[in-house]
Amino acid sequence: MTIKSSDDLLCELCQVSCSSVLTLQQHLNGRRHKAKMEWTRIKGMPSCDVCQIWCTDYKSMEMHLKGQKHKEKVQELEQCKKNGGDSVVKKKPILCELCLVHCMNEELFEMHIKGRSHGVKEELKRRGMM
Predict the structure, then answer these.
(1) Confidence (pTM)
(2) Contact partners, residue 16, CB within 8 Å, separation at least 6
(3) pLDDT at 118 over 60
(4) Which residues cross the membrane (predicted)?
(5) Residue 100 lies in a domain
(6) Is residue 58 part of a domain?
(7) What's the rounded Cα separation, in Å, for the pair 69 and 76?
(8) Whole-number Å distance between alpha carbons of 92 and 107
(9) What is d(CA 78, CA 83) in angstroms, rounded to the nearest whole number?
C-alpha cells in the first residue's frame, strides 16, 4: 500500500487506488485482495540472493537485476570469491505481520515501521477497522 498524496491511497499488490481510508479498509478486507494475498503467499515473491532483497513481482525483479546497485554487488561478490571469500549467505526476511511486508534486514524493517503506509495500517487497526 502506498500513499501517493493525502487523498489517494494505493494497494500496490492489486493496483487499486482508494480515495479514503475507509475505501482502502474495505478493499483490504475484500475477497479479491485476500485472494491475491493468498496467491502471492503460495507462489512466493521473487528474491535476489546477491542483494538479499525481495521484489513484489517479476517485473520489479527484472528492473532490479538491470540496476546499478545490483551490478555493483555482483562485482563485489565476484571480487570476494577471487580473494577466497564465501558465497552469499541466504537470510530469511523479517515480516511485518500488520502489513504483510517482508524486509531483508533490521534497518529496512525499521524504515518500514516509520513509513506512512505502516502508520496508516496501525491507525486502521487502532480504530478497529482492520
Answers:
(1) 0.37
(2) 10, 27, 33
(3) yes
(4) none
(5) yes
(6) yes
(7) 10
(8) 14
(9) 9
